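Hi there,

I know you've been waiting on this one. I reran it after we fixed the sequence typo, so this is the corrected version. Both the input and the resulting structure follow.
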Amino acid sequence: MGRVEKFVTIIPKSLTLRGVVGNSIKQTMRIIPEKKYPFNIVGHNLSHGNNISYELEQVKRSERIEYLLTVENLKKEKGAYFNIISIKTDSKLKPSINIRVKGYIQDNQPIK
């Protein structure tokens, strides 16, 4: 038992890319270090899967640093997938953060 303190705020907690084959499917996540536990992102990689591309951008809001992670679907056919983006931090408390990305791509054929 004990008190658990939040290290980071992640909005939304995971990413779900849902859409139709051929359409642009993107989603953005905010990664906000808590004031008590500041950290910098020092690296990142796609550690599981290859159905997505992503971009990580550092922004400053109200004297605080946060990160925007934009993820885009690359899958060209219908189906589901699961990928993990591994983010490396300079924090000894939490040296890595795993971001789960789920994709659900539907066929663009009309239902008869």
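Quick highlight: The mean pLDDT is 91.

Best,
R. S.
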